[in-house]
Amino acid sequence: MTYQPREFWQDRLARHFDLRGSGETGLSMAYNRACYRLRADVLTRALRELGFDPRGREVLDVGCGTGFFTAYYLERGARLTGIDIAPVSIETLGARHPEARFLLCDVGETPLPLPARGGYALVNAMDVLYHITDDARWETAVNHLAAAVEPQGLLILSDSFSPMESLAEHNVMRPLARYRSLLNAAGLQLAGLHPTHVLLNRDLGAMRFLNRVPALLLAADRALLPLGLGRGPYTNKILVARRVKSE
Predict the structure, then answer these.
(1) CATH number for position 134
(2) For residues 151-160, average pLDDT
(3) Considering its fold, how many domains does the chain have in total?
(4) Which runs of E-coded beta strand occur in 51-200?
(5) Element containing residue 137 per DSSP (H, E)
(6) Model confidence over 206-224: pLDDT tens digits?
(7) Rounded CA separation 233/225 (Å)
(8) For position 203, what pLDDT does the model report?
(9) Residue in 239, 231, 130, 134 with CA at minimum distance from that of residue 183
(10) Minimal CA–CA distance to 67: which of 100, 108, 34?
(11) DSSP type of residue 154
């Protein structure tokens, strides 16, 4: 095992402090932009369905990376705290968004920093947990995320929620049952599971030449997702959980 998370992400983000660094380094910026636009579409729809408005609310962006979701929540008026294990992320985003707070922190090691009121209305951990490859650290991370959510608050995270083989060494997917068990024990219950793509952000095999036209894939996925596609084992999904009782 050669994957060292701090070193890996510091090096990767230092070389690509853009959507490629937190997305697919081997594909174009246009492709990565399409993937993130689709994630934002799905997230917006999920929050709207739950009646959650980030404006004026305390939001924690875990694994803030190159800042896509940081900007997403700030543009919607959230009071945002961002954490990451890569110093380059904290330093760059701190300079870019002086209205927010950024802290160097590893969710798999230490409890998360809390606001004065004691919890966050929303904890966002998009594309984070499957990069924690050690199982014990992953369980610790899930528990730390859950503990940071205030009563009736939301936890947002993403995974394929099914075991997958032949992945990169920095990716380990876990089944939905394991997430649900940990979250329920921590006082959170599943409030939604939303596929984030159908054709984008996956191996298209013999059709991979379509990656050169990401706008076409984006349009196709925007049409296909409302039809219920994207729920198979090889696509990522956004899980929304809500705290339903105090610890």
Answers:
(1) 3.40.50.150
(2) 97
(3) 1
(4) 58-62, 79-84, 101-104, 120-125, 149-159, 188-195
(5) helix 135-147
(6) 999 999 999 999 999 999 9
(7) 15
(8) 87
(9) 239
(10) 100
(11) E
